[in-house]
Amino acid sequence: MTRKSQLRKQELLAAASAVIAEHGIAGASVRAVAERAEVSTGSVLYHFESFDQLVTEAVKSVIDEFNGHRRRLIDGVADPVERLRIMIEAGIPERISNELRVVYEVAAALRDQPQYRRNQTLVTERQVALYSIVIEVGVALGAFTPRMDVDAIAANLVALEDAYDLYLLDPDNWQRDIYLRNMMQYAEIALGCVLVADASNADEPEEHQ
Fold first, then answer.
1. d(Cα 22, Cα 54) in Å, to the nearest integer?
2. First to last CA, the chain
3. What pLDDT is stored for residue 84 in this prediction?
4. Virtual CA dihedral for 108, 98, 124, 146, nearest 10 degrees?
5. 195 and 86 in contact (C-beta within 8 Å)?
6. Ordered domains of the chain (ranges, CATH)
7. In this structure, are residues 85 and 187 in contact, taking their beta carbons and an 8 Å threshold?
8. Average pLDDT score, the chain
9. Neighbouring C-beta atoms of residue 178, cutoff 10 Å
10. Count of other CB atoms within 10 angstroms of residue 83
11. N or C: which end of the chain has fewer CB within 10 A?
12. Which one, of 44, 45, 24, lies nearest residue 113 by Cα?
């Protein structure tokens, strides 16, 4: 595959992802992707064996980037508590990205299009695994004292993310601060750590010797 052809394929994958984010998998079509990419419908099908292959590759590309972004956020962060805080803040984002919308559009389509089930399972498994690693490292360093199974805590954190992000998809229900605080408090209880500074103590003046 030539470099020009490879770039065109990436452009079509990005266009397909944007269409899915806006209209869902059911609303994606060759024409919609062609219009978004500003190419002919023939050009779309030239680079893929079928439109289904284009959608499948677009979904996989989004999921790979979604998980890769989470890993990059904590790369180089040594403090396990800070790593966990970054993970939770990323899980309840200030803005719902197109990548996250695609993930949830895929979840919504599973009943009618079960071929995407593996993709959905993959994104969940990777998120749980990343949380588990962060927690296990923290346990080894003495930062966390888990009060239940580590994998169960990680799975619960991902489940809370998924639930709260579905709320945040509704522009009229934007309570990110509340959802973020709820997740932080659950992690504090489950892991015996402090993620949120005590505002009352922070406002008190320091004592001078």
1. 17
2. 71
3. 97
4. -130
5. no
6. 59-196 (1.10.357.10)
7. no
8. 85
9. 12
10. 22
11. C
12. 24
Give which of 139, 152, 125, 131 is closest to 71, Cα–Cα: 131
CB count within 10 Å of CB 179 equals 20
Residues 151 and 125: their CA atoms lie apart, in Å, by 11
Tokens 């990059």, residue? Answer: 72
**What secondary structure, in 3-state letters, does 127-175 show?**
HHHHHHHHHHHHHHCCCCCCCCCHHHHHHHHHHHHHHHHHHHCCCCCCC
Secondary structure (3-state) at 23: helix
pLDDT one-digit tens code per residue, 65-117: 878 888 999 999 999 999 999 999 988 888 777 777 787 777 777 777 777 78
Average pLDDT of the segment spanning 22-28? 83
Q: Which amino acid is at 184?
A: M
150 vs 48 pLDDT, higher one: 150
* Tokens coding 157: 């954190």
Angle subtended at Cα 53 by Cα 49 and Cα 56, rounded to the nearest 5 degrees: 170
Report the C-alpha gap between 191 and 172 in whole angstroms: 33
- The tens digit of pLDDT for each residue in 85-98 reads 999 998 888 877 77
Instruction: Scan for tokens 């199974």, then name that residue.
Output: 149
* Residue pair 156/190 in contact by the 8 Å Cβ criterion: yes
Q: For the chain, how many residues are written?
A: 209
